[in-house]
Amino acid sequence: MRIKLKKFGEILLSRPDGREAYLILQSSLLHDLPPDENIEIDFSGVTVLTPGWADEVVTKISSKFKNVKLINTENSSVQATLKTLREYSDLKI
Questions:
Q1: What are phi and psi of 47, to 5 degrees?
Q2: CA 22 distance to own-chain centroid
Q3: C-beta of residue 81 within 8 angstroms of C-beta of residue 51
Q4: 27: which DSSP letter?
Q5: 73-85 as b/e: b if 16+ CB within 10 A
Q6: Which regions in the chain score pLDDT beneath 70?
Q7: What is the pLDDT, as a whole number, of residue 90?
Q8: Could you tell me the residue ranges of all domains in the chain?
């Protein structure tokens, strides 16, 4: 399954908005999937991503599923946020 984060906007800023995005994903897409489902988190079209938003979405998805791949992460904001999450959060991918 591919999750396109752009559907939540091009600028993904606040932790509360990230929490809401995760709840939407959980209730509509993720709730019936097995833990070994292949998940692609697609960052195409995202221009700004903050650690708070990403921690609520990316870290939670990666802790729930075993096979998570991050794609289209070339944007410097996305790269910096993922680096921060790997250093200070539970993000292992």
A1: -100, -30
A2: 8
A3: yes
A4: I
A5: eebeebeebbeeb
A6: none
A7: 79
A8: 2-26+35-88
**Tokens at residue 93, please?**
């991918």
- The two tokens of residue 47 are 């221009």
pTM exceeds 0.70: yes
Structure tokens at 69: 């791949």
The total number of residues written for the chain in this structure: 93
**Inter-residue contact 5 to 42 (CB < 8 Å):** yes
CB 45, CB 9: distance < 8 Å: no
Residue with tokens 């939670």, as numbered in its chain: 60
How far the first Cα of the chain sits from its last, in Å, is 17
- Reading the block at residue 5, the tokens are 């984060």
Do 12 and 50 contact (CB within 8 A), yes or no? yes
